[in-house]
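hey can u check if this looks right to u? its 165 residues, i copy pasted from the old doc so theres a chance i mangled smth
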Amino acid sequence: MNNYNSLGAVIAGINGTAVHRLAQTRELVSQQAQKEFMRLEILMGTQKSHFAYRLAWDNTTIERIPFLPLHRRDLVSAEEGNRTFVGPNLERINWRKFEIMGDVIVGIQRSQGTPYPTITRNLDMQRLILDGKFSKDDDELYERSIQLERPGVGESRKRFNWFQR
């Protein structure tokens, strides 16, 4: 579905401490699924300023949802990294700054112009999402993770054991 924003969120969740440490659970995942996940991690990786994602984004002509944190960062970088006025007396507008920002915005606008095909409603999935109780507390998630899999060899129960003396 080319929903890069949700893909980024799922990858961040799986790579979070509470889930990433679940080695025994990860062993239950098929090799094919692990390979596919690695491919998606490469796509959304930060290497070369998100080169793989930017390439995929630029070459996707069908429906797509942008990875908003990156596009927002691009806008902030353009704003903070470029002067609005240039010249000896700061009397000229720096149009290049606005061109960079415009490129980001136009890319997002283009993605809005390609509608998704009609997706049939899945009431079970809707109920699962709307009725789910999801914690945003990292400590609570980590404690739940410890309940699922006890710490392995070399893994301390403390999340940040490198701060201890």
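The mean pLDDT is 91.
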